[in-house]
Amino acid sequence: MAGGGIALSLIVSTWTSSASAGAATVLSIGDGDTLTVNEAGRRTTIRLACIDAPETAQRPYGGSSRTALQALTPVGATVMVQGNKKDRYGRTVAEILRGSTNVNLELIRRGDAFVYRQYLGGCDRNAYLSAEKQAESSRLGVWSVPGGITRPWDWRRGGSSRPISTTPPASRSKPSSRYRCADVGSWAKAQELLKQGHTYLDGDRDGEACESFR
């Protein structure tokens, strides 16, 4: 998925105006927003349109996203590929449909990917944004951390999987006191402290503080 932002920037925003829909068989899953299919006898790599899933290194979210895509599009499954634009890496950018399920949208609904707002042309914008809001409200997947984990497009630039914080810059100075997980009292409080800059509570740097509370 690395380079996905650059790749998608080269796609015409109205890609579905000339989109085609064809049946294909799933051959393999790359990561949370990439899979390979056999389409009319051709091996085709698909970059899921309008979403951006956590990078593999954004543990455990990247792995969870890939697992979700595997469950929605298992190897051997027949899917419909809707879209025919290519990115600079030769991948087809498309929505994937399996039966009545829009896989791209379902990943958003489950909290396994973010809406890629700057590349929503051709998708049902309202449906995607509504699904994301629902996932955030339910604290699913990437939204289990208050404010959501670092967006994958930001992570690719900065290499950090810590949560995004909406805390004003003035309050992000180095914390004046240190806490132990045993003293925090709850998982939610630990995540709030992590947002405030107490990064030592996230010893394994997976974007979640004090996992022992779970």
DSSP summary: helix tally: 7
Count of domains = 2
Assign the structural class, choosing from mainly alpha, mainly beta, alpha/beta, alpha+beta, or little secondary structure: alpha+beta
Which CATH C-level class of the largest domain is it? Mainly Beta
Task: Report on the biggest sheet.
Answer: 5 strands, mixed, barrel
How much is the average pLDDT? 81
Unreliable segments (pLDDT under 50, ≥5 consecutive)? 2-18, 161-175
Number of strands: 8
The strand order across the widest sheet is 1-2-3-6-5
Strand content: 15-25%
- Topology as H/E string? HEEEEHEEEHEHHHH
Amount of helix: 25-40%
CATH architecture identity of the largest domain: Beta Barrel
How many whole angstroms does the radius of gyration measure? 19 Å
Give the distance, in angstroms, between the N- and C-terminal Cα atoms: 30 Å
CATH T-level fold name of the largest domain: OB fold (Dihydrolipoamide Acetyltransferase, E2P)
Question: What does this 3D model show about the protein?
Answer:
With about 210 residues, the chain is an alpha+beta fold. The protein has two domains: about 140 residues, OB fold (Dihydrolipoamide Acetyltransferase, E2P), CATH 2.40.50; about 50 residues, no CATH class. Helix content is about 25%, strand content about 20%. The chain contains seven helices and eight strands. The strands form two sheets. A five-stranded mixed beta barrel has the order 1-2-3-6-5. The protein has a two-stranded antiparallel ribbon with strand order 4-8. Helix 3 packs parallel to helix 4. The relative contact order is 0.15. The N terminus is likely disordered.
